[in-house]
Amino acid sequence: MKSELMEEMSPRLVRECVLQALYQLEFHPDNIELVIQERGEKLTGSFHQFYLRMIEGIKEHQSQINDLIKRYLKSGWSVDRISVVDRAILQIAIYELLYEVRTPKGVVINEAVDLAKIYSGVESSRFVNGVLGNIVKDIGERLSDKTE
């Protein structure tokens, strides 16, 4: 049974657990430790460590992440206007883009788009792809400006 569970574990499963935890925390912000523990129960080893690092990192940098999301929204839109699921997906992806730099940018975007397709919808996946694509383009330009 343990080997079956290990085969099912993947970075995608970690991202799904993080998404579920962030979603649940929107409605139960007073139960942070319980939510984090419950959502990460099925993860072990390095996958559980990745899960905790993602949750803690997103919470620690949430203001910066949300400011970045806001920068790429249509005029008049706020981060609070985005659905809870889409906002959580963007937060996960932006955290990975900024702080989990070993994960290729294309993988981060593809995973986010796939999560949006599964948990939100076609329009959401396009929205997530557009926002993340613009962020990656901007991040790349800023990095190249610093190296020149």
Describe the structure.
Belongs to the NusB family. This is Transcription antitermination protein NusB. The structure is a single chain. This protein has 148 residues and is mainly α. The chain has one domain (2-147): N-utilizing Substance Protein B Homolog, Chain A (Orthogonal Bundle), CATH 1.10.940. Helix content is 78%, strand content 0%. The chain contains 8 helices and no strands. The chain has helices spanning 2-8, 11-27, 32-39, 45-60, 62-71, 84-99, 105-119, 122-147. The longest helix has 26 residues, at 122-147. The protein is globular and about 40 Å long. Residues 1-7 and 143-148 have low confidence and may be disordered.
Average pLDDT figure: 88
Termini distance? 53 Å
The global form is: globular
Q: How many distinct beta strands?
A: 0
Give the helix level as a range of percent. Answer: over 70%
What Rg is obtained from the alpha carbons, in whole angstroms?
15 Å
- Count of discrete structural domains: 1
Task: Please report which band the strand proportion falls in: under 5%, 5-15%, 15-25%, 25-35%, 35-45% or over 45%.
Answer: under 5%
As residue ranges, the low-confidence spans are 1-7, 143-148
The appropriate CATH architecture is: Orthogonal Bundle
- According to CATH, the fold-level topology is N-utilizing Substance Protein B Homolog, Chain A
H/E element sequence: HHHHHHHH
Main sheet overview: none
Tags for this model:
78% helix, N-utilizing Substance Protein B Homolog, Chain A, mainly alpha
Please specify the SSE layout and strand pairing.
Layout: H1 2-8, H2 11-27, H3 32-39, H4 45-60, H5 62-71, H6 84-99, H7 105-119, H8 122-147
Helix pairs in contact: 2-3, 2-4, 2-6, 5-6, 6-7, 6-8, 7-8
